[in-house]
Amino acid sequence: MAPSIKALSYLLVVFVFILPQKAKTQNTLNDIRFKSKDNGIIVEFDFKNTISADSIYSWQSDNDWFYFTLHNVTSDTLSLINETSYTSPILAFQPIINDKTTQIGIRLSQRVESFELYKKTKTNLINAHLHYSLEKFNEIPMAINKNQSQREFDNSFSRSKNWMFLIGSGYVISGLVSKDGKNKNFEIGLSTIVLTYIIDKVFHRT
After folding, report:
1. Are residue 193 and residue 159 in the same domain, yes or no?
2. What CA–CA distance (Å, rounded) separates 190 from 113?
């Protein structure tokens, strides 16, 4: 393979596979809005970039605080505190930043018995529907959320994927700078990156 073709192939790999991975590693929470309903409350998260509902983990404590953990998301806590308005049944609101994770806590006047997360199509919005007592309604879907073991598996898969991209990139660079015509590092690296990309797409489609 001629050096010029190798260089063009490497640039293609960088722009198509590597840069998108870096670009989506961190998001920003811009705003939070609350909408009260007869059977609960809707919490609307407005992000800078599109985000999957799988990036949000939710749970309820014993003291009526309901928490959202937003993975790989940062935010301006002071701005959220000053600009986020709320009324009853929300009694308190608390954003917390921890490394690349943002935690949002809301204290409610009633306990939540079920919740759902919805992603609005073609927007950067995620809606969380929190429902009160199921006794008042005949049909309310139960909570949809990944359990902790599944989330740990997702995190392990994400780390492995990043390592495979780095290893593949190393082989590609080694192949580009090598003067040995029989050196197969470029082909190995390119194959590793492409295969990792395909596995990632198939995994998130299921």
Report:
1. yes
2. 49
Domain that holds residue 85: 27-145
**What contacts 38, CB < 8 A, 6 or more positions away?**
none
Q: Are residues 191 and 140 in the same domain?
A: no
Structure tokens at 75: 């935010």
Q: What is the pLDDT of residue 6?
A: 53
Structure tokens at 8: 């063009």
48 and 83 in one domain?
Answer: yes
Q: Over the stretch 117-159, which tens digit does the pLDDT of each residue have? A: 998 887 899 999 999 876 644 443 443 444 455 656 666 767 7
User: Across residues 184-205, what is the average pLDDT?
Assistant: 78
- Domain end, chosen from 145, 174, 189, is at 145
Q: What is the pLDDT of residues 32-53, one digit of tens each?
A: 999 998 889 999 999 999 988 8
CATH number where 48 lies: 2.60.40.3500
DSSP lists the bridge partners of residue 119 as 126
CA dist., res. 31 & res. 16, Å (int): 31
Is the overall model pTM greater than 0.70, yes or no? no
Number of structural domains, the chain?
2
Helices (H), the chain: 3-13, 19-23, 77-83, 148-177, 185-205
